[in-house]
């Protein structure tokens, strides 16, 4: 006997809520509509059973005995779990940080505080005349982004979709998969993004264009009433984290139409963490990476992150010298080196919680099946209680 | 032409066509199977020609009867083809046309278990009396996973 439920996918910051899951005998048999990244979260089997009580006791011991612990990760967990993690950091008086500054500098804060204009992905689908992927390879990181929102679909005021009503351009250092499917590709040399921004605004204000591509691009900007820049970490690297330049550029573009920016965050709930910190008027104090490098951390509680994979080894190898507790559904290089691993479930698959899409829209993730694995929130709550 | 020259070229009409050229055209279109040319299989002198023809059509075996081939190793399940396909748009205006999952069974392309699968391929605009050289599912694919042979 099989049942079908509609689920929300925690594969990336698109949080697709049209996933059709077929369940037979309490197991997921088939996943419809989710891309390869998302489908793998629904289809892969869970871990062998372990003694949860002993693991939590050990985590509490490690944190109690540490002189300068820190909490890191948090972009791939629910808002409820993030809140508990913040409470733990307050209880311990310790550092807590996610990847938002590391990957995007000050961008998330500028967007969340409305210093840079932003809109929702539904607005993009319904109104965007021009989609600019700058330093973002959405086809690889958020596979359904172009087909659900930013290029291909028809929308309320964009009835002819990508064929006649929408223009997409990829600005990147190489011809990425996203560049291959966009209407145009503009190659920018590493670090030359500020110069390109100068050139574009120059052409818009009447200076002679340096190339046919730039002329075409500026004409499209002039034609557009509603444009969106999808900013990836490539743009932040290219600007060398100079957010003032980006703010200046956005203001310049807005003289020719309504131009918005959506940060293409990695981590299905990075936006949720940043928004929650902003609303609670909390700031991230200090830098986890700096502290790790300087030997200022002796125990790390890593939640839903894999720093051994995505930080430079010169930094991440410091984790080998300290006590590490990793709370994660997956087996990763970080769980390999961890002193204690607590395997939790996946929100939207076997447990629930809320999360925010990259554009700030909040979604409720509801479990499809039941498993013995606890949620991040449950584990962190028990750790907090034990401290 | 290459296919015609590998046939007996006798116009014996055993396959039901009036000439081997006519049979070659139907063979390429996938409208008839190689087995219809019985002399190829029954007569020894055509052994080499038969094996060359079988080799030629081996790659097409993975294709649907209309020639659509999906390389599931390359497909990332991004759904670009699902949303771009004009037949999908026409048949599912409230689902794939607006970027969501299909709301009915009349779509040609949909994503299942992370990769795209085809169905109702006879509705594809590349086939039938008023066929056109539609290539929207091919040009919108970032990994070149869809092909028509």
TrEMBL record, chain A:
GO terms of molecular function: formylmethanofuran dehydrogenase activity
Gene3D superfamilies in the record, alphabetically? Dimethylsulfoxide Reductase, domain 2
GO biological process terms held by the UniProt record: methanogenesis
| Entries under NCBIfam families matching the protein | one_C_dehyd_B
**Name of protein:** Formylmethanofuran dehydrogenase subunit B
Give the species: Candidatus Syntropharchaeum butanivorans
TrEMBL record, chain B:
Name this protein carries in UniProt: tRNA CCA-pyrophosphorylase
Keyword field = 4Fe-4S, Iron, Iron-sulfur, Metal-binding
Q: Identify the domain of life.
A: Archaea
Any coiled-coil regions, as ranges: none
Which residue range or ranges hold the 4Fe-4S domain? 1-55
Domain 4Fe-4S ferredoxin-type positions? 66-95
Which species expresses this protein natively? Candidatus Syntropharchaeum butanivorans
Q: Which PROSITE patterns match?
A: 4FE4S, 4FE4S_FER_1, 4FE4S_FER_2
Q: Name one GO molecular function term.
A: 4 iron, 4 sulfur cluster binding
Instruction: List the Pfam families.
Output: Fer4, FeS
Asked if the Swiss-Prot or TrEMBL record annotates the protein with the keyword Iron-sulfur, the reply is yes
């Amino acid at each position: 006997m099989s049942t079908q439920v509609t689920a929300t996918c925690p594969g990336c910051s698109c949080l697709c809520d049209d996933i059709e899951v077929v369940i037979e005998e309490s197991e997921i048999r088939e996943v419809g509509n989710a891309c390869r990244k998302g489908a793998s979260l629904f289809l892969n089997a869970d871990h062998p059973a372990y003694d949860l009580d002993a693991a939590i006791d050990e985590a509490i011991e490690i944190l109690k005995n540490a002189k300068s612990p820190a909490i890191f990760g948090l972009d791939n967990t629910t808002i409820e779990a993030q809140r508990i993690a913040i409470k733990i950091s307050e209880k311990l008086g310790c550092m807590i940080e996610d990847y938002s500054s590391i990957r995007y500098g000050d961008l998330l804060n500028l967007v969340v505080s409305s210093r840079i204009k932003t809109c929702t992905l539904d607005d993009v689908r319904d109104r965007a005349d021009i989609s600019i992927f700058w330093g973002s390879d959405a086809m690889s990181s958020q596979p359904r982004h172009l087909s659900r929102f930013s290029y291909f679909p028809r929308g309320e005021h964009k009835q002819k979709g990508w064929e006649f009503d929408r223009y997409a351009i990829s600005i990147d250092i190489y011809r990425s998969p996203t560049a291959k499917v966009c209407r145009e590709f503009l190659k920018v040399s590493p670090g030359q993004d500020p110069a390109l921004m100068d050139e574009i605004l120059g052409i818009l204000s009447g200076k002679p264009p340096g190339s046919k591509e730039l002329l075409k691009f500026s004409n499209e900007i002039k034609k557009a009433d509603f444009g969106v820049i999808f900013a990836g970490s490539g743009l932040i690297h290219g600007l060398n984290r100079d957010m003032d330049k980006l703010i200046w550029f956005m203001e310049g573009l807005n003289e020719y139409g309504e131009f918005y920016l959506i940060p293409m965050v990695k981590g299905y709930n990075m936006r949720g963490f940043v928004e929650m910190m902003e609303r609670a008027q909390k700031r991230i104090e200090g830098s986890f990476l700096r502290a790790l490098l300087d030997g200022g951390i002796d125990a790390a509680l890593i939640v839903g992150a894999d720093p051994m994979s995505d930080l430079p080894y010169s930094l991440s190898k410091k984790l080998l010298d300290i006590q590490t507790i990793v709370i994660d559904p997956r087996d990763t290089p970080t769980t390999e080196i961890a002193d204690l691993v607590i395997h939790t479930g996946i929100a939207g698959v076997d447990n629930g919680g809320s999360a925010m899409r990259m554009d700030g829209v909040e979604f409720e993730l509801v479990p499809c099946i039941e498993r013995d694995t606890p949620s991040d929130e449950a584990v962190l709550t028990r750790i907090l209680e034990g401290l | 032409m290459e296919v015609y020259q590998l046939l007996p070229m006798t116009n014996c009409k055993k396959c039901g066509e009036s000439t081997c050229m006519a049979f070659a055209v139907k063979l390429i279109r996938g409208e008839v199977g190689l087995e219809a040319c019985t002399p190829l299989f029954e007569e020894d002198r055509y052994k080499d020609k038969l094996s060359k023809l079988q080799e030629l059509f081996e790659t097409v075996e993975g294709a649907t009867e209309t020639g659509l081939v999906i390389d599931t190793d390359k497909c990332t399940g991004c759904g670009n083809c699902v949303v771009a396909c004009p037949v999908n748009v026409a048949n599912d205006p409230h689902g794939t046309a607006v970027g969501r999952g299909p709301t009915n069974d009349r779509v040609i392309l949909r994503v299942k278990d992370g990769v795209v699968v085809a169905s109702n391929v006879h509705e594809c605009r590349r086939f039938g009396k008023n066929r056109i050289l539609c290539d929207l599912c091919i040009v919108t694919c970032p990994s070149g996973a869809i092909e028509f042979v």
